[in-house]
TrEMBL record:
An annotated GO cellular component: mitochondrial matrix
Example of a GO MF term: metal ion binding
Residue span, Glutaredoxin domain: 29-93
Gene: LOC108624006
PANTHER family noted in UniProt: GLUTAREDOXIN FAMILY MEMBER, GLUTAREDOXIN-RELATED PROTEIN 5, MITOCHONDRIAL
The protein, known as: Glutaredoxin-related protein 5, mitochondrial
Keyword terms: 2Fe-2S, Iron, Iron-sulfur, Metal-binding, Redox-active center
InterPro entries cross-referenced by the UniProt entry: Glutaredoxin (IPR002109), GRX_PICOT-like (IPR033658), Monothiol_GRX-rel (IPR004480), Thioredoxin-like_sf (IPR036249)
Natural source organism: Ceratina calcarata
The keyword Aminoacyl-tRNA synthetase appears for this protein: no
Entry-linked NCBIfam families: Grx4 family monothiol glutaredoxin
Length: 132
């Protein structure tokens, strides 16, 4: 027979995973970060918010510093050890370094376009071309 403590621990993990699964599906772009977009609490979270701001992407942000269960649970859910974590269309994309690389090489614009989001940088580039 399993102990009540073990049962409750397993139930908590399962509940947290279900909660996270629902969170990543609520919006096209979801970020788990330290702090909030207007006040990031680490440089990597700040970099992610700046990149998304440049593209004028609307996203859900979840402050893992406010919820230790969420902080640990998101790492297990994505099998990724660090925060921030970015999800696009319910799929884990990566952290700051990966999002930065996607921004630099244009892949972020493409990924956003696939889910119906037009990057402000793309609109800006198209506006410059039409003026020429």
């Amino acid at each position: 027979m399993i102990s009540l403590k073990f049962y409750n621990a397993i139930r908590s993990i399962s509940t947290t995973a279900d909660r996270i699964a629902n969170l990543v599906k609520k919006n096209k772009v979801v970020v788990f970060m330290k702090g909030v977009p207007d006040s990031p609490k680490c440089g990597f979270s700040n970099a992610v918010t700046q990149i998304l701001r440049m593209h004028d992407v609307k996203y859900d942000a979840h402050d893992v510093l406010e919820d230790e269960e969420l902080r640990q649970g998101i790492k297990e859910f994505s099998n990724w050890p660090t925060i921030p974590q970015v999800f696009i269309n319910g799929e884990f994309v990566g952290g700051c370094d990966i999002l930065l690389e996607m921004h630099r090489n244009g892949e972020l614009v493409s990924e956003l376009k696939k889910i119906g989001i037009t990057s402000a940088l793309l609109e800006e580039a198209q506006g410059k071309k039409s003026k020429e």
